[in-house]
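re: ur question from yesterday

yeah so i grabbed the chain u mentioned. its 284 aa long if i counted rite. heres the sequnce exactly as i have it in my notes:
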Amino acid sequence: MTLTSATKISNISPKISVIISTYNSEEWLEKVLWSYQAQTFKDFEVVIADDGSKQPTFQLIEDLKPKLSYPIKHVWHEDNGFQKSQILNKAIVACKADYILMSDGDCLARADFIEVHMNHREKGYFLSGGYFMLPMAISKLITKDNILNQNCFDVNWLKERGLKSSFKNNKLTSTGIKSKFLNAITPTNASWNGHNSSGWKSDIVAINGFDERMQYGGQDRELGERLFNLGIKSIQIRYSAVCLHLDHPRGYKTEESIKKNLGIRAVTKKEAKTWTKFGIQKPG
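ran it thru and got these C-alpha cells back, copy pasting raw so excuse formatting
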C-alpha cells in the first residue's frame, strides 16, 4: 500500500525541509529520492530545486510521488544557463519547515542522514557535512534495492565492486566516539557545503539567501561566509552525516565563473557583508 499525495501533503508543518538541487539528471535523481525513502527520521518534506530540467524530470517526479512516503514539492524555472542560486532561493521560500537541509540530486543519503542533522541542530549554528565520492562504474551499478537495503553504504560491498582502500573510507565506517574524534581533528573547514549542510530558515532568510550573481563554484561557501558575518557559527559533522556522491561530468564549470565568484566572495569577506542585494528579496 502506498500513501496518496493528499495524505502526505496533510503534514502541514514538517520538522525539516530537505532541498535537493537537480538539472536534467533523472537517473541520479531517482536513486537519490529512493535514498530518502529509507530515512529513519520520517517527519520531513523534500523540495526539489530544479534549474530548468525538461519533461523527463517532471515525469519521473510524478511517477515516484505515489510510491514514496514523504511529500515532494517541485520548484522549477525555465532553463537560462546555470542559475542554481536563483532556484535555490525559490526553494528556500517554498520550504514549510523552520529548519532546512540542503543536498544535491547526485548525493545518496544514508538512512540516518536526516536524523543526524536533526540531532545536531542548534540555535546560533549551522551544520557542515561532506560527501564520499564514488567512481562512475559504481555509481551506475547501484540499484534501488541496494539503496533501500543500504548495501551501497557498506564499505566492504563497495570494495567488492572496485572501491580502493583509502583513509576517506572512514567516512563510511565511523560511528560514535570515532566519528566525533574525526569530526574534531579534520583539517577541513566547517563551511556551508551545498551537498550536505543544514541551518535555520530564519538565519538563511536574514542574509537574503544565495547571491544570484554567482554561477558555478563557491556560491554555497559565500552564503556560509555571510552567515559567519551575521554571528552564526558552524559545527563539523563530516564523519557523522554520510552521503554518497555519484559521479558525473561538470560542463558548467568554467574559469570565468570561478573567477567571478571568487571576486564576490572577496568583497563579502573584506566588507564583512551579511546581506546580498541579489538574493531572495530584490531592491524596489
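noticed a couple things. The longest strand covers residues 16-22. also The longest helix spans residues 255-270.
anyway ttyl
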